[in-house]
Amino acid sequence: MAKHFGGAVALHGIDLTIEQGEVHCLVGENGAGKSTLGKVIAGVHRPDAGQLILRGEPVDFRSPRASIAAGIAFIAQELAIVPDRSVIENVFLGQAGRALDLVPRRRLRAKYDALAAKAGFDVDPAAPAGSLRLADQQKVEILRSLARDADLIIMDEPTASLAGSDADQLLRIIDDLRSEGRTVVFVTHFLADALAVADRITVLKDGRLVRSSPADGETADGLVESMLGRSLGSMFPDRLDSPPVTADPALEVTGLSRDGEFHDVDLKVRRGEVVGIAGLVGAGRTELVETLVGLRRPRAGNVTVAGHSGPFRSPRHAQQAGLVMVPESRKDHGLVLGRTVRENVTLPHLASVSRLSFVSKARQTDVLGELLPQVGLDPARIDSLVGELSGGNQQKVMFARWLLERPTALIADEPTRGVDVGARAGLYELLRSVADEGAGVLIVSSDNEELVGLADRVLVMRTGRVVGELVGDEIDEDHLLQLMFAEEAREESA
Ligand SMILES: Nc1ncnc2c1ncn2[C@@H]1O[C@H](COP(=O)(O)OP(=O)(O)OP(=O)(O)O)[C@@H](O)[C@H]1O
Ligand SMILES: [Mg+2]
């Protein structure tokens, strides 16, 4: 199978066999060609050369519809929901063709309930899909692929926006699909997940197949080495020996509340410090940080950034005070897909009073030439359209944008989702260096390993409140889980 886009070769003639009834994981660096391979199988892209053979018969899909008709379901890396339609409509979208309107509502609802129960997902079927949080939108996509009753299901990073228990739930669903004799192709950057669930693992690198072998014989280190072409030293930089208790606060929050979301939040991030926020999906973390940067208005409380008092009315105001955020998802925030990397990185800065708006293109190229490798992007792609980058590389563009002018305080919401392991280590290094240069860094993460490895201090949120703090050596997965899951009863008696 071969596929190129203009001058860029995404797949160089790959031979691969996927057995009926197996779970087959695809792993590889950002831009390795995983999504392209998935899209060729799903009829989204037509290959330049090569032959797709399905159950012994050569097939030539001219559209996604043709692949669906052949029993293939594809969950794209980019979300594909219709925002103003209900969850139930999204799940059964395109399924019965135009006849959907003719299916009695009650029957559809019963079908939905059965599907959701089987998957173990609890998503309100009547809600407009666009109003859901990202993790729930991802569940809608998973339910849709299950509703199609497909024989081969391709999942392109379905867990990138799912946290903890939901991600585990998805692994159980994959297991169930296998026991029903279905075939699953699973693309993931979580190598532990790949090792846990796969029968076979295929490693792609630069559009070529490195190897395809039984999961039994694979290890995380071995996979990393084949993906990157080198071994990876330690994933995390050293943390501070002791917390900088006397350093000035970069970001200070007092008594911040928003009805129904979070209550009376106090927090301080000092210059030089990396602070994490842990919690389950729904704990109020994203709502909190979106309020800090002016995307939502608090009912009460104060936000201060190195002498500038908020709360800030908009991200622009927050940015002028020195506070910026890399948002949770590249899927729906702020990247202009039809513009170049250069434009996307410099875009929000040109509007503000910025050094960079006055400099020449050549100087921009110099500045970006230094910054792009720091976030793990090839500087040769400076004038590529963002829409032509792989999913993980788009996330790195987001990072570059907010690090271009070193902020006083940087918030990163789930910063490494969808980013390959090599680049992830690079981003951790970068976040630490931003703190070393005197900024305060606040990270929201559902990946406890990431918080344990990176943060000097972790705050734990539950149902809209900060319920605990761990410092230095206290930060480990056991302590985090205890605080995240502590019983409501204990909270009341306290
Ligand atoms: N529509 C497109 N136009 C131009 N180039 C593209 C397009 N889609 C993908 N590419 C290029 O093809 C190569 C493979 O991309 P692909 O999306 O398959 O990577 P991936 O392995 O899925 O990466 P990630 O882990 O970041 O999702 C990349 O160099 C990418 O820039
Ligand atoms: Mg991809």
From TrEMBL:
SUPFAM superfamilies: P-loop containing nucleoside triphosphate hydrolases. CDD domains: ABC_Carb_Monos_I (cd03216), ABC_Carb_Monos_II (cd03215). Keywords: ATP-binding, Nucleotide-binding, Repeat, Sugar transport, Transport. Residues 2-231, 245-488 form the ABC transporter domain. GO terms for molecular function: ATP binding; ATP hydrolysis activity. The keyword Nucleotide-binding applies. This is Simple sugar transport system ATP-binding protein/ribose transport system ATP-binding protein. It comes from Nocardioides kongjuensis. The lineage of its organism: Bacteria, Bacillati, Actinomycetota, Actinomycetes, Propionibacteriales.
